[in-house]
Amino acid sequence: MAALMHVSDPDLLHEIFDTAQHVKQAIYGRRLVIFAPLYVSNMCANECTYCAFPARNTELERRALTQEEIARERGRSSTRATSACCSSPASPTRVRVSYVLKSIETSTASPMTREKSAAST
Length: 121
Ligand code: SF4
Description:
- By secondary structure, this protein is an all-alpha fold.
- The chain has one domain.
- 40% of the residues lie in helices and 0% in strands.
- The chain has 4 helices and no strands.
- The mean pLDDT is 81.
- Bound molecules: iron/sulfur cluster.
């Protein structure tokens, strides 16, 4: 992504925008899709300048939600998540991939499945 932001060649830019339009059209078509990210962790080892969770921010309490907390937070929304947004992968030494996968499963499950899933952890 960062490399794409430094492209200045007009032909290459045109190709990038055409490809982005093609991908957007193939996935979403004319639908309006609203994302409601659920942050399951703020444990991050990266330093993205636009973000409030970079590693250099030592003011934050760093933690990962439990599966029960994820199920509860997800239950507050009236829509069914089809995707999950997690900052956890940015710190693989502090948050395991299995936790992220379980969190995605919990946050995208139906309400009844979600409660069972959270209770089994
Ligand atoms: S949480 Fe995500 S966006 Fe924020 S610093 Fe970490 S990797 Fe970057």
